[in-house]
Amino acid sequence: MSPVLAGIAGVLVGLALYALTCLSMPFVMCRKCAGAGKVQSRSGRVSRPCKRCKESGRRLRLGRKVINYLRDNRDRADRATR
Ligand SMILES: [Zn+2]
Fold it and tell me: Around ion ligand 1, which residues have CB less than 5 A away?
């Protein structure tokens, strides 16, 4: 197998594994608040709700957002052709 083919195969295997991860574990810990759902203000006295994860402490993986977008798009197309 040539190195180029091996590289392409490696990328495809990596993408397939990432897609499986996105399907089985769609959420990851929010990096902004480290899963707490609240962030400290700059002074460090007050904690505010995390805007990025809306206080859930979790966020959707980028790959899962893509999957959800494609799924919604397909559903919309199905409804339009009915
Ligand atoms: Zn957060």
Answer: 30, 32-33, 50, 52-53
